[in-house]
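Here is one chain, start to finish.
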Amino acid sequence: MKDNVIGDTAPLCLICKTPLVKATDTYAGIYLSPSMAMRRFESSAEKHGYEKALTGRVKQEREAWIAAAWALCMQQETGREYWIEIETQDQTPDCRVHYIDQSEGHNHRYTHNLEIVEWDHHRPNFMDVVRQKCAKGGYPSYFTLVVLARNGKGVTFPDDLHGLHELTIPFGDMWLMGRASPDTTTYSVCQFHPFIKLMQFDLRDAIEQNKNQVDFLHPEGRGRETEFRDRGLMYMPLKGE
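Its structure:
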């Protein structure tokens, strides 16, 4: 069902009274919890079919899922609460992952700018994926590269990083993430630049631990020191609808 809204600057759904968001080509400034970002991709998969969801049609929702999984791993390591912002205006980065530091009595926002690439069955060699992304160039040195392995292949570090030191690497840090095995929700996460660090986390457990984080947050003001408002329930159209 579609509601036609005329002359109402703060409309609510006629059925559930959920605040509606004006349909636009950008979600800039709307922060999603990792759990919400994942649910959005799952909704896309239900709508379009899982095979189509793995193609370009819902690329932004898929990249947000990857960013959310990476953020949940970081949350396990740092204890921070992370937020996903889907980039729809600029070509880069693919997603922004924010966290808010209140240790000095103010809201200081810090951001990881994620460039995301998927290692699928079309490219059997992991380093081919990394070489192609690094050769593209033009990324600021504070960008982070996150590679999601979804081809069932494993990587042995450092043996499978042959040739990495020969590359001109534009990224400040690079990560590989993938299921530890096909029949588990445990993910292995490896930072492989500028140093090697291995981690594991259970995605199902991480989502459960994250369930009390509000779904949407909205920054008010500019700069790192700003106020944030819980958006509560809201309707946020999926790209491709």
